[in-house]
Specification:
By secondary structure, the chain is mainly α. The chain has 5 helices and 2 strands; from the N terminus they run H-E-H-H-H-E-H. The chain has helices spanning about 1-20, 35-40, 40-80, 85-140, 160-195, and strands at about 30, 140-145. Helix 2 (about 35-40) runs parallel beside helix 5 and helix 3 (about 40-80) runs antiparallel to helix 4.
Length: about 200
């Protein structure tokens, strides 16, 4: 009986050793995130949007600053003519305006940073989801990120899929923009028909 058990154990171990483990190829790639954000059309549009807002709101504030500087220059020339009491009162008013302008500049800067930061976070989150879906669709086991916050110190260029991701993202963004235009056109057509 012991011999039979020994023979069975040996035969099981021989069979187990003869089976070769199936090794699945691990498909990897990387994306240069700094290039991606420079080349991605939606990111460019977002940057342009906030640059335009900054310039527009900045022009309004610049006009107020110019008026303040003119008033300050007039104050210096009129201070001697109108006396010390007038100079103290006008000087206090000018200081108050200067503080208000400084606060307005800071508030504008913070507002634009907050708004653009929120939209940029949403954009980055969407890009990450897209890359995840892209990786699953194309059969990648890993997609690494390089760029400003590098997590890959070296990779062969043949594994760089940055251009593929940029093209796919830009195509998706353009398709979404065309869909929005069609919806807007249909809405405008219906509005005109009602008139």
């Amino acid at each position: 009986m012991k011999k039979v058990l020994l023979i069975i154990a040996i035969s099981i171990s021989v069979i187990a050793c003869n089976k070769t483990a199936e090794v699945k190829e691990v498909k990897t790639a990387y994306v240069d995130t700094s290039v991606l954000m420079k080349e991605y059309t939606e990111a460019k549009d977002l940057e342009a949007k906030y640059k335009a807002q900054s310039e527009e709101k900045g022009r309004q504030l610049d006009a107020e600053i110019k008026r303040f500087k003119q008033d300050a220059a007039n104050f210096q020339s009129q201070a001697q003519a109108n006396g010390q009491a007038w100079a103290q009162q006008k000087g206090a008013e000018l200081q108050k305006r200067e503080q208000q302008l400084s606060y307005a500049q800071q508030a504008l800067s913070q507002q634009l940073q907050q708004e653009s930061g929120t939209e940029m976070d949403t954009l980055v989150s969407g890009v990450k989801k897209f890359i995840k879906a892209y990786g699953k669709e194309k059969g990648y086991s890993y997609i690494y990120g390089t760029g400003d916050a590098a997590s890959v110190l070296y990779a062969e260029e043949k594994y760089d899929i940055t251009k593929d991701i940029i093209k796919a993202l830009n195509d998706k963004y353009k398709a979404a923009a065309k869909t929005e235009e069609k919806v807007e056109d249909k809405t405008e057509d219906k509005t005109e028909e009602k008139k």
